[in-house]
Specification:
This protein is of the alpha+beta class. Helices cover about 35% and strands about 15% of the residues. The protein binds zinc ion (ZN).
């Protein structure tokens, strides 16, 4: 089973954008997916109601550092 990430519309509940994560380091795939989502207005606009999803939250995790640490193992 592949990892996937999805964002849902806060207004109507439809899936705004989903992306399958490539095999490999999930954190790296998630980081790339979030950056793509935040940079692409069409990706974060709901197809159902037109609501624009706020930028996805990366939280306090320093994802590139996490990926680098995982790679080093
Ligand atoms: Zn919607």
């Amino acid at each position: 089973m592949r990892e996937a990430v999805a964002w849902y519309c806060a207004r109507c509940g439809a899936i705004v954008h989903s992306e399958e994560l490539p095999t490999g380091i999930p954190q790296e795939g998630y980081w790339n997916a979030v950056r793509t989502f935040n940079a692409d207005l069409s990706a974060c606009t709901c197809g159902g109601c037109g609501e624009v999803h706020p930028p996805a939250d990366l939280g306090d995790i320093a994802w590139p550092e996490v990926v680098a640490a995982l790679r080093a193992e």
